[in-house]
Amino acid sequence: MSFGKELIQSANEALEIAQGKAAPAAVYVPETVDVAAIRKQQGLTQAAFAERYGLAESAVRDWEQHRRSPDRAAVLLLKVIERSPDIVAQAIRA
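Structure (tokenized):
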């Protein structure tokens, strides 16, 4: 199928969903993670946590204050940090 035909088909599917004639194929609900709890468990400030794991301090602050949510890759990294903080810190320093 050509790109143009796929685009038209997608637009028609979106219209049917918007009109309630069809249900979306899948709904992605991102998993949440408590960044502040992970950081506090390690006894680190936001700045120290960000530096240790190669994150932007502003991102850590925004995640903790719920102004932004970590994307899927960040959620996965944070989950690994939660379980194995020393291994992640060592890998980042290498």
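The chain has two domains: 1-26, 35-93. The first helix runs from residue 3 to 18.
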